[in-house]
Amino acid sequence: MKQRFGRTRATATVLVAWGVVVGGGLADGGRAVAADHGIEHTEAVRVAPGVTYDEFRMRLPRGTVHGHLLTVDLTDPDVSVDLLHPAAVAERAPVSELADDEDVVGAVNGDFFNISEAQHPGVAVTGAPVGPAVSSGRELKGAVPNGQRFGPVLPPGATTEDVLAVGRDHRARLDRLALRGTVRSAEGSWPLRGLNQYALPVGGIGAFTAAWGPVSRKRAVCGTDTDRGAGCTKDTAEVTVRHGRVAKVGGPPGHGGIAAGSVVLLGREEGARRLRTLHVGERVRIGHGLVGQRPGRPRFAVGGFPIVRNARPVGGLNAAAVTMRTSVGIADRGRTLYLMATDGEKGRHQTGLTVRELAELMVRLGAREAMDLDGGGSSTFVSRDPDDQELRVRNHPSTGKERPVANAIGVFSTE
After folding, report:
1. Are 285 and 185 in contact (CB under 8 A)?
2. How is the chain split among helix, strand and coil, in percent rounded to 5?
3. pLDDT tens digits for range 391-402
4. pTM
5. 154/179 Cα distance (integer angstroms)
6. Residues 399, 128, 306, CA angle at the centre, nearest 5°?
7. Residue 234 Cα distances to 44, 199, 248, 277, 387, angstroms
8. Cα dihedral sign for 322, 323, 324, 327?
9. Residue in 340, 327, 318 with CA at minimum distance from that of residue 174
10. How many Cβ atoms are within 10 Å of 91's Cβ, its own excluded?
């Protein structure tokens, strides 16, 4: 599996497939087959060994849901799944650009992300994702506090630490990744509460590495654990640790790229007071890791929130807001993965879904577990055409064009 972090990409050749629901059939030459659990599918097309693509439709009283489905057999030795992401955590790119790799055969957009800062004038939007992120075994970031997230209201029991993960055993699972870390010096030992996050817990210390990128770190000290729109604290301190020793001690959050071998520690409130005790030249040890509730370290992980467990929608899902949706489902004890996104083309009597309806749809598609990913204008479904090998955006993003996103789930084939 290739490491895509920092990879220079050529411009992607992306074609939009204009197949939509028209009257009683599916356009673009797709042949409708028998309905399954109230869903009418086109004939599945083999994209690569262990990977198939089909379209489906489901009628609701208010209109027709038109969706795109990639079914992935994780037991196939030629197939793997990994996180697609830009060159920095605090950066965005369209899914088709992220998928510009000759081994990618399909992808959907991933986690919710820091998309707006209207409540904090002058603070740079980071574009960084909400939840934990792991790519090719590399831990890129931790989860922001629940109250700092973007996206639909979480159902009871869900947190920003929830992820879809695939382990080294090539089995998919829903898990929860918590950051565990420590900053140690002669002045004391303090918990590390953040890793490349756009929001830090009140009173916490966070670490920013070269993976963060050049975007300002000021957003990390805005809001509180329960109120994303709360103001930005001025009680901050920033310390640069280079090769294990303090190289710089400052006050307000900075910006600009972080050199390899360096870590910027940013503290707010009590965390800032602790960092102010450090002095230049002092030895500092920083250790951290993402710890799951399930055995085995994830090879890949992306944030979202669970909507299906044990083949049933979870309780407390929103049943009011209707929009385009993206989801990932698991079946066959982690051996099968479903990537799904609905279509957003207007004027075709199509409709979106509530989160509750999305959960019901994923159960009908065969998922025993499923997660809601970023939706609305972010919903994007990409797959490679088996005939000409061109990468195509199969759905119609609701804004009329692809929205740059924080990350995506990519399906790879070595055939």
Report:
1. yes
2. 10, 40, 50
3. 999 999 888 899
4. 0.92
5. 20
6. 80
7. 56, 14, 19, 17, 58
8. negative
9. 327
10. 18
